[in-house]
Each structure stands twice: as structure tokens, then as C-alpha cells.
Amino acid sequence: MKKATFFEGVGFALIISIVVAVIFTTMSYFLNSNIFRMLVAGVSLAYIIYLFLRSDERVGKVTVISTWFAITLTSLIFIPSLLLYIIIQIFIIWIIRSLYFYNSIFSALIDLTLMGMSLVVAVWALLISDSVFLSFWCFFLMQALFVFIPKNFIGKNKSDLVSPINDDKFKHAHRAAEIAVSKLINPNGGC
């Protein structure tokens, strides 16, 4: 599985921002104010699929998509606030990234901070420029930074954490387990 890269995230941000701007500009004349909610849901789903394509994990994807669909449909119907609806979608993305990309609570909390900052920057861009393109561009440009968050904060060299005495005990226990298993498999032959 190909890992996500920063430049790939920038490319995703550019493509999704252009698509959203074109759809919003075209469809806003024909549909009511729910077009923005539908765009947010579509972009959220596209980003979740992108994350799945870049994740090494193989389990739970159908469940996650089903849960996302149920939450999105429920919040489309029952959540009147657009900002709260967007926060729910961002929270779902954060949960998915935390489950599929990180092994540490600290990494997940850093990612949550990145999500919050991304939302603030996107709202700021929308208020200053009144441009849907710039708002989505700023949000997903900041999301591209998630690749720099470490998977966990435990050092890669774990041999520093294991003392030689404990390592010898492990080797001894491992050898004893191998002998026991070989005796179970072949009771007459032994080791």
C-alpha cells in the first residue's frame, strides 16, 4: 500500500477545491442551501476513501463507511447548524485517521489539534475572501500536514529498553517453548 505524502495531499487539496468550487457555483443557482451540506458530505466521503487507499489496515472499512453514512444522514436531517454539521464530519475524519494511521494517543491528539486549526483557517479564508475554493483549499492544504505526525512516540530502537539479562531469559523461555511444542507434535521423536 502506498503511503500518503505531503505533495499528494496538496494535489488532493487542489483537485477537491476546484471540483467543489465548480459544483457549488453551478448548483447553487438551482438548489437550496443544502447544496453546501451535500458538498461537505461528498468531500468527506472522498477524503475517507483517500485515507483508506493510503492505510495499511485492512479491517473495518465497510463498518466505517456504514457508520459514516448513518451519522451523515442523521446529521443532515436533525442538525440545523451548518457549522455543527461540518464539525461532525471533521470529527469522523479525525476518528478514522486516529484508528487507521496512529498507534499513540499523543499522535491522535496532535491530529485533533491539526483538525481544529484547519477548521479555523478554512472559516477565516471563507470570511475574508467569500470563496468556497479558498476555504476548501486552506482546509485540505493543512490536512496534507498529517503525514508529518509520527505514528507513535516510542523510539524505534527498542533494544535500548531491553536489558541483556531479560533478553537472555526470553531466549531461554523461547527455546523451552519450542522444545515443548516439538514434543507435543512428535511425542516419540522429541527434540
Q: SSE string, helix = H, strand = E?
A: HHHHHHH
Q: Unreliable stretches, pLDDT < 50, 5 or more residues? A: 159-163
Structural class: mainly alpha
Radius of gyration: 24 Å
The dominant shape is elongated
Helix proportion of residues, in percent? over 70%
Number of domains: 2
Helical element count? 7
Total beta strands: 0
The largest sheet, given as strand count, sense and whether it forms a barrel, is: none
Query: Residue-averaged pLDDT, rounded?
Result: 86
Distance between the termini: 41 Å
Strand content: under 5%
Protein architecture, described:
This protein is mostly helical and 191 residues long. It contains seven helices and no strands. Helix 1 (6-27) runs antiparallel to helix 6, helix 2 (34-54) runs antiparallel to helix 3 (61-78) and helix 3 (61-78) packs antiparallel against helix 4 (82-101). The longest helix is centred in the middle third of the chain and has 25 residues, at 105-129.
In terms of topology, how is this protein built?
Layout: H1 6-27, H2 34-54, H3 61-78, H4 82-101, H5 105-129, H6 132-143, H7 164-185
Helix pairs in contact: 1-2, 1-6, 2-3, 2-4, 3-4, 4-5, 5-6
Summary of the model, kept short:
The chain is 73% helix and 0% strand.
Features:
191 residues, mainly alpha, 0% strand, elongated
